[in-house]
Amino acid sequence: MSLSLVMKTDHDMAGQSSPAPLDHHRLTGNRPVQFLTAPVPFTRHEASARGISPYRLRTDSRYVQLTRGIWIDTQPETSVIAPLWADHQWLRKQMHVKAMLKLDDEVAGCNLTAARLYGLPLPAHLNERSVHVVTPALNASMTRPGVALHRYKELRTSSFFDLPLISVPQLFVELAPILNVAELTTLGEAAIGPWHGEALTSLSSLRREVTDRDRIHDRKTTESALEMMREGVDSPRETWLRLWLINHGFPEPVIHPAIRCSVVPGVLHPDLGYPEKKVAIEYEGDHHRSSDAQFAADNRRLEALNAAGWTVLRVSKKTNMMQFARILKHHLT
């Protein structure tokens, strides 16, 4: 099945006003959006209203049955609201959650499904096939292939691009049993940071979710992750780099230390740094090399930091980390 990702309109909501206060019940807020052409699930009754006969549903390859009683049109003309970073996989997941809503309008996306839809980082090995949904009805059942139904007595949900999803603080606790401390720390910092724009939640909200609960599966993991989490981290790779430094015996670096430089106006903020030693560490993603403008900007920053007396060490996914550790140790000692 192929989903067409044709952008219909632009970033209509971007830059219109300052960000609204964080609202855990409607997280779309002033986030920039796009509208993508994608299938919208429909029932047999809705098919009839569209003029699609039961015979066509059975015989026309244009219509694909997602699950018992739910179909999609593989040649859609409908537009769905999506975040700017949404891709083909995001559209598929939102489509499956909307299909489950046709069966039970009280369910919401949860677990790994909600994490993917929120755009939170997950380990590569967690490539789940099931659609995870949650309901506040403790006696509810939904026996469908590829669907994992969870029951949550005190469920709180958020509307995220017209999708009901479990609240981010509850999701954070829910994922603790299947993530290790570093993975949960990375996910948590992405949720409270500016990785995809506005923060999804706050560190205080995550802490409150943990402290207010009498029972938590794997409380040790959640509390250890909260202790390691820091605010203002730009990307999961920056989290990884900071944790790598700590785990290899280096002092915890400062996140985005403020550096004034006479060469350029304003204040520079490298990813990580040790101000007392004037050592800055920058993580370079692929876009730093593929974009000429970004490459030029990086060089200007490097020159300015060097002029201010700072040593700048760069790290990428291809860096020999043992060699990097020896160089960093030399500069710190």
TrEMBL record:
Pfam families: DUF559. Residues 276-328 form the DUF559 domain. Residues 1-27 are annotated as: Disordered. InterPro entries: DUF559, Restrct_endonuc-II-like. This is DUF559 domain-containing protein. It comes from Brevibacterium antiquum.
